[in-house]
Amino acid sequence: MNRPPSYTRRRWLGHGSALLAAATAGAPWRPAFAEGRPEQLRIGYQKSASLFVHQKSVGSLEKRLAPLGVAVKWFEFPAGPQLLEGLNVGAIDVGYVGEAPPIFAQAAGARFVYIGYDPAAPQAEAVVVPKDSALKTVADLKGRKVALNKGSNVHYLLVKLLEKHGLSYADVQPVFLPPADARAAFERGAVDAWAIWDPFLAAVEKQTGARQLADGRGVVNNYLFYLAERGYAERWPQVVKALFDDLGEQGRWVTANVRQAAEKIAPLQGLDVDVVERSLRRYPLGVQPLTPAIAAEQQKIADAFLELKLLPRPVRILDALPAARLAGAA
Questions:
Q1: 198 with 128: CB under 8 angstroms?
Q2: Which terminus of the chain has fewer CB atoms gathered within 10 Å of its CB, N or C?
Q3: pLDDT tens column, 274-317
Q4: DSSP collapsed to 3 states, 91-148
Q5: What are the alphabetically sorted keywords of the record (predicted)?
Q6: Are residues 138 and 285 in the same domain?
């Protein structure tokens, strides 16, 4: 069995360093601002961040930030934990991740704030098995190998699904792999199941006939979060507001034009249009500022990971909210 993640600061910063170097090749490592104004907004995104991918494809954020003299740079990461590493070491200024990565990152001392979230998307993540697998229920996973990205949103999904079906996290053998490696292991039968999110979920379902044992409905919320490096957010709120406004505007367009949006996004994600469309329909968009209620939901996840000894120390989610939001949380 793989050992559970022990996210001390040193080990966490070392995790995925090669992936980080590849994702940020050519990235400027000087501060992202010049005297009096920021030079750029560096955005970390994943294939699952379809709204960011859409914004990148149409250049809407570049147009919005041009009057401020701010350039936009885009850097792709394989998953949330690697993206958070990039945020922590100063390679990017903002990013978009699932529920778990910010918790592990905060436990490791990363300096960021939650700047927004999208509505719950429990159908956008699931545990899948090959179409001809003998496994029929989550309870059948006892003693089996389950691939997942360490510290990602599906880490919590797996914990809660096992709990719901009378198993503990210790009852399975987690195999920690990023999505591309997990897909390869899944297809060659090196693992029995895969806990994964969209669009990778939609792709493996359509392309291999993979079956869901369960998705997140009735078990997890699967909120998606927009994060910013704390210093950047505090120094350049006008840039963060422009990003937030553009996310709202483009999110409304994607929601009203799902098929057309999928056709724009698919080439950049390297996926079939039908796969991207299926994924978009499982990810409701509608960015909102983080509230104390949503922070409380995050706190439940942090407490669950601490109880499982997956975190090195307690995490207080409210410490990662912008000061303006804390007034309503006292």
A1: no
A2: C
A3: 999 999 999 999 999 988 899 999 999 999 999 989 999 999 99
A4: CCCEEEECCHHHHHHHHCCCCEEEEEEECCCHHHEEEEECCCCCCCCHHHHCCCEEEE
A5: Signal, Transport
A6: no
What was the pLDDT predicted at 96?
Answer: 94
CB 117 within 8 A of CB 290: yes
Asked whether residue 143 falls in the same domain as residue 280, the answer is: no
pTM of the model: 0.82
Stated length of the chain: 330
2 secondary structure, DSSP code: P
CATH number at 30 reads 3.40.190.10
Residue at a domain's end among 183, 215, 247 = 215
Instruction: Give the amino acid at 229.
Output: E
Per the omega criterion (within 30 degrees of 0), is the bond before 199 cis? yes
Contact indicator for 65, 74 with CB cutoff of 8 Å: no
Structural domain that includes position 282? 9-119+223-326
